[in-house]
Design brief:
209 residues, GTP cyclohydrolase-2, zinc ion binding
């Protein structure tokens, strides 16, 4: 059971139109009470609707360095494309969520996976860190500021939907956002499916832990 999260405030700092491969988005920067800066990429006018929404956790290795160990990098443009095709929606880029919230330095525990044969769950636990340290109070505050209280959530992760619900957002529907596995991330995706409950159908049944 997910415990309700206390309301949190964010400050809207700046807006700019960003031309993308998927059409023009309005980028709105927010700053949380802890100083963490987040970005909302808004397409069309989703206020007052059940908006198609992607809550995308920061992933420098996937989003910037194009690491093939995860599915984060391809999910971001796929989400922008889906949102633009729908005509209105938002992608929230949440900073401070690197490595499911444990931070970049701790996330570079790939050596634990390689040397000790640990998956991402056991690598976190081996370091004395939680399996998932993310919360979604900032995401909820940003959505409320954008006039969005109900969403269709682009995710494969039911726990993300539960976290947003606990933060005060109505998740009307979960829309899958699957990426075709590659030779480097099949085990990672199998871990998500088998140990974290992600709804993944493209990972072969033989790819078990």
């Amino acid at each position: 059971m997910t415990t309700a999260q206390p309301a949190r405030s964010v400050v809207r700092c700046a807006d700019a139109e960003i031309p993308t491969d998927h059409g023009p988005f309005t980028a709105t920067a927010y700053r949380s009470a802890t100083g963490t800066e987040h970005l909302a990429m808004v397409f069309g006018d989703p206020a007052g609707t059940t908006a198609l929404t992607r809550v995308h956790s920061e992933c420098l290795t996937g989003d910037v360095l194009a690491s093939r160990r995860c599915d984060c990098g391809p999910q971001r443009p796929a989400a922008l494309e889906r949102i633009a095709h729908t005509g209105a929606g938002v992608l929230l880029y949440l900073r401070g969520h690197e490595g499911r919230g444990i931070g970049l330095a701790a996330k570079i525990a790939y050596q634990l996976q390689d040397r000790l044969g640990l998956d991402t769950v056991d690598a976190n636990l081996h370091l004395g860190l939680p399996v998932d340290a993310r919360d979604y109070a900032d995401a909820a505050a940003i959505l409320h500021d954008l006039g969005i209280d109900s969403i269709d959530l682009l995710t494969n992760n039911p726990a993300k939907a539960a976290g947003l619900t606990a933060a005060g957002i109505t998740v009307a529907h979960i829309a899958p956002l699957e990426i075709t596995p590659n030779d480097h991330n099949t085990h990672y995706l199998a871990t998500k499916r088998d140990r974290l409950g992600h709804r993944l159908t493209r990972v072969r049944l033989t790819d078990t832990l």
